[in-house]
Every structure is written in structure tokens, then in C-alpha cells.
Amino acid sequence: MSSNRNKLVSAAINRAYILIDYDKNEEEQYESIKQIILTDESLTNNEKLGAINIISKDFDGFKILDNKGTKRNCVNCQKECLAELYCEHCVRNYLEAQFSKWTSGMKRLIA
User: Fold this and answer.
1) pLDDT tens digits for 78-106?
2) Which of 58, 80, 93, 103 has the smallest set of CB atoms within 10 Å of its CB?
């Protein structure tokens, strides 16, 4: 996507956030933002999907930070999770499993 198209997507997301009705709960606000983006005639269908992906990541982050929202069952671990795009439990388990393999990248000097 060109720089100009990226700016157009960013502008559409910003317009959608400006139009948020703060009397609604977070999930209703999210759905409202999605609808605003979906009806934006300046964006292509792929750009709309990209914009919705961006706001979905933001929304997932807010739900996890606030620890509130509608939960769903993860198809992998079967635990309840808040995020829609990923499972916070599966991410945590993956990071814990990979922790012993982490390195600073610095070679160890033996004296």
C-alpha cells in the first residue's frame, strides 16, 4: 500500500475514533467504529479490513489491560480469553516455553 493510501487509512481510523459515542460501553464503541470504517467510501475493501485489524488490536489491548469485556473460549487451549485476535493464555504459555532459549545475543567471554 502506498504512503498516501496508508495516510488515508489512518485518517479514516481517526475520523471513526472522533465519532465515538462515549455513552456506549467499549464493545458498542468498537462495533460503531467498525461500522464507520466499513461505510467509508474512500477506502478499498482491503483497506477497510486492514483498518479494522488495527482497531481490533487496540480494542484487544484495552480489554486485556482493563480485564473486562466479553470472553470467548480459545480453540487451542479451551480457556476463556478476552482478546479476539489471539489468546492471551496461549501467548503466555508460548513465551514461558521459549524463555530458556532467550539470549542477549552477546557472546559469553570465558576468563
Assistant:
1) 999 999 999 999 999 999 999 988 887 77
2) 103
Instruction: Count, in order, helices (H) and strands (E) of the chain.
Output: 4, 2
CA distance 24 to 85: 22
Is the CB of residue 57 less than 8 Å from the CB of residue 85? yes
And the C-alpha cell for 69? 469485556
Domain residue spans in the chain?
A: 3-69, 71-101
What digits encode the pLDDT tens for the residues 45-74? 999 999 999 999 999 999 999 999 999 999
Q: Which one-letter amino acid corresponds to residue 91?
A: V
Cβ proximity of 9 and 22 under 8 Å: no
Q: Using 50, 70 and 90 to split pLDDT, how confident is the model at 108?
A: low
